[in-house]
Write a structure and sequence with these properties.
GO terms for molecular function: hydrolase activity. This is Amidohydrolase family protein. InterPro entries: Amidohydro-rel, Metal_Hydrolase, Metallo-dep_Lactonases. It comes from Sphingomonas piscis. By secondary structure, this protein is an alpha/beta fold. It has a single domain, classed as Metal-dependent hydrolases (TIM Barrel), CATH 3.20.20. The chain is built from nine helices and eight strands. Helix 3 runs parallel beside helix 4. The longest helix is centred in the last third of the chain and has 16 residues.
Amino acid sequence: MIDAHQHYWQIGKNGHEWPTADMATIHRDYLPDDWAAVAAPLGIGGSIAVQSQANDADTDWLLTLAQGTPSILGVVGWTELKAPDAAAAVRALAARPKLKGLRPMLQNLADDNWIADPALDPAIAAMVECRLRFDALVFTRHLPPLRRFAERWSDLPIVVDHGAKPPIAAREIDEWRREMTSLAALPNVCCKLSGLFTEMSAGQPRFDVQPYIHFLLGTFGPNRLMWGSDWPVLLLAGEYREWFDTAAAMTGLDRAGQAMLFGGTAARFYGVADSD
């Protein structure tokens, strides 16, 4: 099994800016031994390590860490995709062992239509050339421009992180469901079943996440949906085993479906295997 989305960081190092000290639950170093302590008992042996800082130093550190860590099957990094030398930077990163994709952290950008800027074209073309994947960290409001981007770059594999962070705390679903349905119609788009607990309010019944899980599974199917923990961010709202067990129970898949959701889809999408 593969965890399709988790993070590592060191406080005060490698371009670290987040989490801040007020987030005491996760304001400490998280390294591969910490992840293995919670993942290995569940039979999860590999992961995709995703950047957590909009900083080249973070990506460089993750790639260096991955070289000596067999459980890191792939890295999703960051680079400034609108920089004048972005295409060259993308090609240089693609040459690094285990670099599988890039993530511009769209949720944090002031312009919801940032992704529509033609200044991105050289970098995205280089990503397609280098067979990299694009992780989209978005909210519902970003889905229309993301759909247009995905239509334009139909040869670019795209995965929506955290199911586009649906408004579970507000128990709203209609707009999110409509926009996700439109996006899911595009064959180059996959989705991560991750990060949903942190979209819930404190004390909200776990059962409230079920309609969102059912929708994602029904819309993408296990062949385009991949489970991820979003650990250690997950710890703000729950525990690793709890999220794993919830996803397994609420998806209700047979053995073949579970094999895809909990590993096969991620392995195919990112081009990794446990033996890599």
